[in-house]
Protein backbone atom coordinates (compact mmCIF):
# COMPACT_ATOMS: atom_id res chain seq x y z
CA UNK A 1 0.00 0.00 0.00
CA UNK A 2 1.13 3.48 -0.77
CA UNK A 3 2.71 5.08 2.33
CA UNK A 4 0.80 8.27 1.67
CA UNK A 5 -2.50 6.40 1.93
CA UNK A 6 -1.50 4.19 4.88
CA UNK A 7 -0.69 7.00 7.26
CA UNK A 8 -4.13 8.66 7.07
CA UNK A 9 -5.86 5.28 7.49
CA UNK A 10 -3.88 4.49 10.67
CA UNK A 11 -4.66 7.91 12.09
CA UNK A 12 -8.38 7.47 11.35
CA UNK A 13 -8.51 4.05 13.06
CA UNK A 14 -6.64 5.39 16.11
CA UNK A 15 -9.09 8.28 16.53
CA UNK A 16 -12.10 5.99 16.19
CA UNK A 17 -10.84 3.59 18.85
CA UNK A 18 -10.04 6.49 21.19
CA UNK A 19 -13.52 7.91 20.81
CA UNK A 20 -15.08 4.51 21.65
CA UNK A 21 -12.93 4.22 24.76
CA UNK A 22 -14.22 7.49 26.17
CA UNK A 23 -17.90 6.97 25.23
CA UNK A 24 -19.99 5.89 28.32
CA UNK A 25 -21.78 2.54 28.04
CA UNK A 26 -25.48 2.57 27.35
CA UNK A 27 -27.61 2.22 30.50
CA UNK A 28 -31.31 1.70 30.64
CA UNK A 29 -33.15 4.53 32.34
CA UNK A 30 -33.77 3.89 36.03
CA UNK A 31 -37.31 2.67 36.75
CA UNK A 32 -39.21 4.17 39.67
CA UNK A 33 -41.24 1.80 41.85
CA UNK A 34 -44.88 1.76 41.05
CA UNK A 35 -46.76 3.89 43.48
CA UNK A 36 -50.24 3.08 44.69
CA UNK A 37 -52.78 5.74 43.82
CA UNK A 38 -53.65 7.81 46.83
CA UNK A 39 -57.27 6.64 46.74
CA UNK A 40 -56.31 2.94 47.29
CA UNK A 41 -56.24 1.74 50.95
CA UNK A 42 -53.19 -0.03 52.30
CA UNK A 43 -53.54 -3.85 52.36
CA UNK A 44 -54.84 -5.21 55.68
CA UNK A 45 -52.75 -7.88 57.37
CA UNK A 46 -54.82 -11.04 57.54
CA UNK A 47 -55.11 -13.16 60.70
CA UNK A 48 -56.26 -16.76 60.69
CA UNK A 49 -59.04 -18.05 62.91
CA UNK A 50 -56.50 -19.86 65.07
CA UNK A 51 -54.45 -16.71 65.61
CA UNK A 52 -57.50 -14.63 66.42
CA UNK A 53 -59.55 -16.93 68.66
CA UNK A 54 -57.38 -19.86 69.79
CA UNK A 55 -53.75 -18.81 70.19
CA UNK A 56 -53.13 -17.32 73.63
CA UNK A 57 -56.74 -18.00 74.67
CA UNK A 58 -57.45 -21.75 74.80
CA UNK A 59 -55.69 -24.08 77.22
CA UNK A 60 -56.28 -27.77 77.98
CA UNK A 61 -54.83 -29.94 80.71
CA UNK A 62 -55.32 -32.29 83.63
CA UNK A 63 -56.73 -31.35 87.02
CA UNK A 64 -56.13 -33.31 90.23
CA UNK A 65 -58.36 -32.68 93.25
CA UNK A 66 -58.96 -34.20 96.66
CA UNK A 67 -62.50 -33.62 97.90
CA UNK A 68 -63.83 -33.84 101.44
CA UNK A 69 -67.55 -34.12 102.12
CA UNK A 70 -68.63 -32.11 105.16
CA UNK A 71 -70.99 -33.17 107.99
CA UNK A 72 -70.34 -36.88 107.45
CA UNK A 73 -71.18 -37.95 110.99
CA UNK A 74 -74.09 -37.49 113.37
CA UNK A 75 -74.51 -38.86 116.88
CA UNK A 76 -76.25 -42.21 116.69
CA UNK A 77 -79.91 -42.08 117.57
CA UNK A 78 -81.45 -45.49 118.43
CA UNK A 79 -84.84 -44.14 117.41
CA UNK A 80 -83.41 -43.24 114.01
CA UNK A 81 -84.81 -39.72 113.90
CA UNK A 82 -81.45 -37.92 113.79
CA UNK A 83 -79.62 -40.50 111.68
CA UNK A 84 -79.14 -40.08 107.94
CA UNK A 85 -81.42 -43.00 107.15
CA UNK A 86 -82.48 -45.84 109.46
CA UNK A 87 -79.43 -46.81 111.53
CA UNK A 88 -76.96 -45.09 109.17
CA UNK A 89 -75.21 -42.28 111.05
CA UNK A 90 -71.60 -42.44 109.80
CA UNK A 91 -70.47 -41.77 106.22
CA UNK A 92 -66.89 -43.00 106.05
CA UNK A 93 -64.95 -41.32 103.26
CA UNK A 94 -62.39 -43.14 101.18
CA UNK A 95 -60.93 -42.96 97.71
CA UNK A 96 -57.92 -41.50 95.98
CA UNK A 97 -57.39 -38.11 94.43
CA UNK A 98 -59.62 -37.59 91.41
CA UNK A 99 -58.12 -36.72 88.02
CA UNK A 100 -60.07 -35.05 85.25
CA UNK A 101 -59.93 -32.91 82.14
CA UNK A 102 -59.82 -29.12 82.50
CA UNK A 103 -60.44 -26.61 79.69
CA UNK A 104 -59.97 -22.86 80.09
CA UNK A 105 -60.70 -20.09 77.60
CA UNK A 106 -59.44 -16.53 78.12
CA UNK A 107 -62.01 -14.00 77.00
CA UNK A 108 -59.79 -11.14 78.18
CA UNK A 109 -56.52 -10.90 80.15
CA UNK A 110 -58.61 -10.62 83.33
CA UNK A 111 -61.57 -12.90 82.49
CA UNK A 112 -61.79 -16.60 81.62
CA UNK A 113 -64.31 -19.43 81.61
CA UNK A 114 -63.38 -22.93 82.73
CA UNK A 115 -64.89 -26.40 82.73
CA UNK A 116 -63.65 -29.56 84.47
CA UNK A 117 -64.73 -32.94 85.85
CA UNK A 118 -62.26 -33.41 88.71
CA UNK A 119 -64.63 -34.26 91.59
CA UNK A 120 -65.13 -37.72 93.05
CA UNK A 121 -66.21 -38.85 96.52
CA UNK A 122 -66.95 -42.36 97.82
CA UNK A 123 -68.73 -42.63 101.18
CA UNK A 124 -69.47 -45.89 103.00
CA UNK A 125 -72.92 -45.70 104.59
CA UNK A 126 -72.27 -47.28 107.99
CA UNK A 127 -74.60 -48.20 110.83
CA UNK A 128 -74.10 -47.38 114.49
CA UNK A 129 -70.70 -45.66 114.23
CA UNK A 130 -69.18 -48.05 111.71
CA UNK A 131 -70.42 -51.43 112.92
CA UNK A 132 -71.58 -52.47 109.44
CA UNK A 133 -71.95 -50.66 106.11
CA UNK A 134 -74.93 -51.05 103.80
CA UNK A 135 -73.06 -49.83 100.75
CA UNK A 136 -71.14 -46.95 99.21
CA UNK A 137 -72.55 -43.60 98.11
CA UNK A 138 -70.69 -42.40 95.02
CA UNK A 139 -70.69 -38.74 94.04
CA UNK A 140 -69.43 -37.47 90.68
CA UNK A 141 -69.73 -34.13 88.90
CA UNK A 142 -68.67 -31.72 86.20
CA UNK A 143 -68.41 -27.98 86.78
CA UNK A 144 -68.23 -24.66 84.95
CA UNK A 145 -67.12 -21.32 86.32
CA UNK A 146 -66.13 -17.79 85.40
CA UNK A 147 -62.67 -16.75 86.61
CA UNK A 148 -61.47 -13.24 87.40
CA UNK A 149 -57.67 -13.02 87.19
CA UNK A 150 -55.22 -10.32 88.17
CA UNK A 151 -54.88 -8.46 84.82
CA UNK A 152 -51.13 -7.71 84.85
CA UNK A 153 -49.69 -10.48 82.65
CA UNK A 154 -46.12 -9.56 83.60
CA UNK A 155 -46.66 -11.15 87.01
CA UNK A 156 -45.17 -14.64 87.18
CA UNK A 157 -47.79 -15.70 89.75
CA UNK A 158 -51.30 -14.31 89.30
CA UNK A 159 -54.14 -14.75 91.84
CA UNK A 160 -57.69 -15.46 90.71
CA UNK A 161 -61.20 -16.07 92.05
CA UNK A 162 -64.05 -18.01 90.48
CA UNK A 163 -67.80 -18.42 90.72
CA UNK A 164 -69.97 -20.94 88.91
CA UNK A 165 -71.96 -24.14 89.29
CA UNK A 166 -71.40 -27.87 89.68
CA UNK A 167 -73.73 -30.60 88.45
CA UNK A 168 -73.45 -33.45 91.00
CA UNK A 169 -74.75 -36.96 90.35
CA UNK A 170 -75.18 -39.74 92.91
CA UNK A 171 -75.33 -43.53 92.85
CA UNK A 172 -75.34 -46.25 95.50
CA UNK A 173 -73.20 -49.40 95.31
CA UNK A 174 -74.81 -51.97 97.62
CA UNK A 175 -72.92 -54.25 99.96
CA UNK A 176 -73.88 -57.82 98.90
CA UNK A 177 -74.80 -58.96 102.42
CA UNK A 178 -77.24 -56.08 102.83
CA UNK A 179 -78.67 -56.18 99.32
CA UNK A 180 -79.42 -59.93 99.50
CA UNK A 181 -81.24 -59.66 102.81
CA UNK A 182 -78.72 -61.00 105.32
CA UNK A 183 -78.49 -59.65 108.86
CA UNK A 184 -74.72 -59.13 108.88
CA UNK A 185 -71.59 -59.61 106.74
CA UNK A 186 -70.61 -62.54 108.97
CA UNK A 187 -73.85 -64.44 108.29
CA UNK A 188 -73.52 -63.74 104.59
CA UNK A 189 -69.99 -65.18 104.53
CA UNK A 190 -70.94 -68.15 106.75
CA UNK A 191 -73.51 -69.31 104.23
CA UNK A 192 -71.14 -69.06 101.30
CA UNK A 193 -71.76 -65.52 100.08
CA UNK A 194 -74.40 -66.66 97.63
CA UNK A 195 -76.12 -64.08 95.43
CA UNK A 196 -79.46 -65.75 96.03
CA UNK A 197 -81.63 -63.42 98.17
CA UNK A 198 -82.29 -64.73 101.66
CA UNK A 199 -85.93 -65.80 101.90
CA UNK A 200 -86.36 -64.34 98.42
CA UNK A 201 -86.13 -60.76 99.70
CA UNK A 202 -83.74 -58.07 98.43
CA UNK A 203 -83.07 -54.60 99.83
CA UNK A 204 -82.34 -51.64 97.59
CA UNK A 205 -81.23 -48.07 98.27
CA UNK A 206 -82.49 -45.49 95.78
CA UNK A 207 -80.74 -42.11 95.67
CA UNK A 208 -81.48 -38.94 93.72
CA UNK A 209 -78.99 -36.59 92.11
CA UNK A 210 -78.48 -33.34 94.05
CA UNK A 211 -78.32 -31.51 90.72
CA UNK A 212 -76.95 -28.03 90.09
CA UNK A 213 -75.08 -26.49 93.02
CA UNK A 214 -73.23 -23.14 93.33
CA UNK A 215 -69.47 -23.10 93.78
CA UNK A 216 -66.88 -20.56 94.91
CA UNK A 217 -63.18 -21.00 94.23
CA UNK A 218 -59.86 -19.24 94.46
CA UNK A 219 -56.30 -19.98 93.44
CA UNK A 220 -53.09 -18.88 91.79
CA UNK A 221 -51.71 -19.43 88.30
CA UNK A 222 -48.00 -19.62 87.55
CA UNK A 223 -46.24 -19.86 84.20
CA UNK A 224 -43.67 -22.61 84.62
CA UNK A 225 -42.27 -23.15 81.11
CA UNK A 226 -43.21 -21.47 77.84
CA UNK A 227 -46.90 -22.38 77.32
CA UNK A 228 -47.31 -24.53 80.44
CA UNK A 229 -49.32 -23.12 83.36
CA UNK A 230 -49.78 -24.50 86.86
CA UNK A 231 -52.93 -23.78 88.88
CA UNK A 232 -53.24 -24.37 92.61
CA UNK A 233 -56.80 -23.99 93.86
CA UNK A 234 -59.40 -24.46 96.58
CA UNK A 235 -63.11 -24.89 95.91
CA UNK A 236 -66.33 -25.04 97.96
CA UNK A 237 -69.57 -26.52 96.63
CA UNK A 238 -72.81 -25.76 98.45
CA UNK A 239 -74.41 -29.02 97.42
CA UNK A 240 -77.84 -30.15 98.59
CA UNK A 241 -78.16 -33.44 100.47
CA UNK A 242 -78.74 -36.63 98.51
CA UNK A 243 -82.32 -37.79 98.97
CA UNK A 244 -82.51 -41.54 99.61
CA UNK A 245 -85.11 -44.23 100.22
CA UNK A 246 -84.81 -47.84 101.32
CA UNK A 247 -87.08 -50.34 99.57
CA UNK A 248 -87.62 -54.11 100.01
CA UNK A 249 -88.57 -56.29 97.07
CA UNK A 250 -91.68 -57.32 99.00
CA UNK A 251 -92.83 -53.70 99.37
CA UNK A 252 -96.15 -53.06 97.72
CA UNK A 253 -95.94 -50.69 94.76
CA UNK A 254 -92.29 -50.01 95.65
CA UNK A 255 -93.28 -48.05 98.73
CA UNK A 256 -90.14 -47.18 100.73
CA UNK A 257 -89.75 -48.50 104.27
CA UNK A 258 -87.55 -45.56 105.23
CA UNK A 259 -86.48 -42.28 103.69
CA UNK A 260 -83.62 -39.97 104.52
CA UNK A 261 -80.77 -37.93 103.10
CA UNK A 262 -76.98 -38.20 102.85
CA UNK A 263 -74.58 -35.24 102.99
CA UNK A 264 -72.97 -33.97 99.79
CA UNK A 265 -71.65 -30.47 100.55
CA UNK A 266 -67.90 -30.58 99.97
CA UNK A 267 -64.63 -28.72 99.65
CA UNK A 268 -61.79 -29.63 97.31
CA UNK A 269 -58.12 -28.78 97.06
CA UNK A 270 -55.97 -29.52 94.06
CA UNK A 271 -53.70 -28.53 91.20
CA UNK A 272 -54.02 -28.41 87.43
CA UNK A 273 -51.42 -28.40 84.67
CA UNK A 274 -52.56 -26.69 81.46
CA UNK A 275 -51.03 -26.18 78.01
CA UNK A 276 -51.96 -22.90 76.33
CA UNK A 277 -52.11 -22.93 72.56
List keywords for this structure.
4 helices, disordered N terminus, 277 residues, mainly beta, eight-stranded antiparallel β-barrel, elongated, Porin, 49% strand, three-stranded antiparallel sheet
Description:
This protein is mainly β. The protein has a domain at 63-177 and 206-238 and 262-276: Porin, CATH 2.40.160. The chain has helices at residues 3-21, 49-54, 176-179, 185-190, and strands spanning 58-69, 88-94, 98-108, 111-127, 132-149, 157-174, 203-207, 211-225, 228-237, 242-248, 258-262, 266-276. The strands form 2 sheets. It has an 8-stranded antiparallel β-barrel with strand order 1-3-4-5-6-8-9-12. A hairpin with a 4-residue loop joins β4 and β5 (132-149). The longest helix has 19 residues, at 3-21. The chain is elongated. The termini are far apart. 24% of the residues are buried. Residues 1-11 and 13-28 have low confidence and may be disordered.
What is the topology?
Layout: H1 3-21, H2 49-54, E1 58-69, E2 88-94, E3 98-108, E4 111-127, E5 132-149, E6 157-174, H3 176-179, H4 185-190, E7 203-207, E8 211-225, E9 228-237, E10 242-248, E11 258-262, E12 266-276
Antiparallel strand pairs: 1-3, 1-12, 2-4, 3-4, 4-5, 5-6, 6-8, 7-10, 8-9, 9-12, 10-11
* Distance between the ends: 92 Å
Query: Strands of the biggest beta sheet: in what spatial order?
Result: 1-3-4-5-6-8-9-12
Percent in strands: over 45%
* Mean pLDDT across residues: 85
User: Helix/strand-derived class?
Assistant: mainly beta
Write down the Rg.
40 Å
The total beta strand count reads 12
In the CATH hierarchy, what is the class of one domain? Mainly Beta
Instruction: Note the run of SSEs as H and E.
Output: HHEEEEEEHHEEEEEE
CATH architecture assignment name of one domain: Beta Barrel
Low-confidence stretches: 1-11, 13-28
Task: Name the helicity range.
Answer: 10-25%
| Largest beta-sheet characterization | 8 strands, antiparallel, barrel
User: Looking at the structure, what is the overall shape?
Assistant: elongated
- Count of separate DSSP helical elements: 4
CATH fold field value of one domain:
Porin
Amino acid sequence: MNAKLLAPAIATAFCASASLAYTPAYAAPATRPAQRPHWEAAPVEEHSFLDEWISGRLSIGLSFAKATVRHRHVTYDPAGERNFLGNINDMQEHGDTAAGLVIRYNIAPWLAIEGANDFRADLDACNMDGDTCDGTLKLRSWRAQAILTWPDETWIVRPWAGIGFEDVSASFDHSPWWHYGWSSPADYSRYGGDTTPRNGVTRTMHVEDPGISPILSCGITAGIWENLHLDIFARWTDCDNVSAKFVRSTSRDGKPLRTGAFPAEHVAFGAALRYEF
